[in-house]
Amino acid sequence: MAYDLSFAREVYKNSEMGHWIKMCMQCGVCAGSCPLGPHWEHSPRQLFQMVRAGKKEEVLKSSSMWMCTSCYNCIVRCPRHLPITHIVHGLARYAMEQGMANPQQPTHRFASKVFWENIVATGRVGEAGLTMKLYFLDGLGAGIRMGLEMKDVALGMVKTGRLNPIPFRGKIKGYAGFQAMLQKAAAIESKHKEAKA
Amino acid sequence: MKEYTFYPGCSSEKGASAANMENSVHAMCQMLGIKLHEIDDWNCCSASIGYAGGGELPRMALSARNFALAKKQFGNRDLVATCAACWLGMRETHERLEEDQQVKADLNEALQAAGLSYDGGIKTRHMVEVLIEDFGFDALKAKVTKPLTGIKVAGYVGCQTNRPFGVAGDNFENPQYLDKMTEACGATAVPFEKKVACCGGALAFSENEKSCALIRDILQSAVDNGADVISTPCPVCQLNVEVYQDKVNKMFGTRFRIPVVYYSQLFVLAWGGGWQKAALHQQVVPADVLKKFA
Asked: Which of A52, A63, A166, A174 has its CA 20 to 30 Å from the CA of residue B195?
């Protein structure tokens, strides 16, 4: 059987820090260092070997990348100094770009749908709006259920002046420029990707 | 009087989750003779999970805009952050922008759309670096008027104030600086196996039960070592380990109720600043054990 390197080459070129995967020596220190290790479908070590083995579908549909808490334990422990956290973030983003990330995966939904949209809407994160939107993603009933489950947490924070119950805040003053800047940055990034493809 | 450019970040806004950090940091700085110049009209740094929606360049553009505004308003003065994720995100963008001419050119092309530019030169620092490097533990200790004698503190450094950049050349696996701050306040730093363990970070939102299992282990380690309070520099650690204690208790049949405070709150208290200035009235789990020092 011949090796098919096309997916590996795709990742090296198009996924953030993906070219570092070439350097992985399969020691597994990353897998043993991850706080959510027990919940990974595939450990980082396995993911990297799967990239090299051409398993595009299995890699990009894996829920693994979305288990990353950004604790950076794997980065500081990797004996070959691979920026593993960034590679994993890159694969998660690439799975999204390829339309292969599971839309129901909770962290995928939170990170891409709720969190980024919250930043882009005003320039800053509004925590109350962020939480409400996350809870109500699955409709009114689920939202109310989540709200009730978390009500003591929320009440404790409102009482101590750490949660503003009115989920509205204005935009930053330079919002028009801020928005134009983000659009431009996204356009430059796609231009680079097209040039490399 | 030492002066710095200041980036508070979203969780330090008025009425946001780290308002107790923000308020105590300002009191701490005032008592120490630090003047913070907040960047006018700053935006979010993208935090830990901005990578998914933002990708590479838009994510870094967020910090680039803050750098450009900082330079315009305050020149090359050091930029100080108090939030772990803000500091990390800015530091990453800073390094990539300074080391890679293509990244610098791309970010400037994006900034131009906002009528801004940034040619580099501002150093991004964490508040604890300022305390350690620009003042030193002896100076922090010399200000103590109400030593927190007898209080046992589990110093919870967490992840992002520690990795991947580290503070003051400290060790990633067992950093010492937070324990030294505890001791500078006159309190006792207890051994703490979960000192650099992860609380789940942003996944406490999306994967709450997985995060609660991590939080349980952190609380258990603090209690096993006899800690009266947990102290941390990180707003996500503080929030997660404090506000989910009831949830953890329900999930695991435990009975945790231990205050989780910021290093800045302990300093303000030990320097005689009192309860309100230390923002200790803003704790969800009341830090009653510290009342006698107020």
From this structure: A63
Tens digits of residue pLDDT in A50-79: 999 999 999 999 999 999 999 999 999 999
Does any CB of chain B come closer than 8 Å to the CB of residue A98? no
pTM of the model: 0.96
Please answer yes or no on whether A177 and B15 come within 8 Å at the CB atom.
no
Cα A120 from Cα B54, distance rounded (Å): 10
For residue A70, the domain's CATH number is: 1.10.1060.10
pLDDT, one tens digit per residue, over B205-227 is: 999 999 999 999 999 999 999 99
For residues B15 and A127, the answer to whether their CB atoms sit within 8 Å is no
B contacts of A83 (beta carbons < 8 Å): 164
Question: A185 and B58 in contact by Cβ < 8 A?
Answer: yes
Query: Which residues form the domain of A34?
Result: 6-97
**Closest CA of chain A from B142, distance in Å:** 31
Task: Determine the distance from the C-alpha atom of residue B117 to the mean position of all C-alpha atoms in its chain, rounded to a whole number.
Answer: 28
Q: Which domains does chain B have, with CATH numbers?
A: 2-127 (1.20.1050.140), 137-293 (3.40.50.11810)
Taking an 8 Å cut-off on Cβ atoms, the answer to whether A184 and B282 are in contact is no
Instruction: Assess if residue A183 is contained within a domain.
Output: no
Output the DSSP codes for A24-39.
-----HHHHH-TTGGG
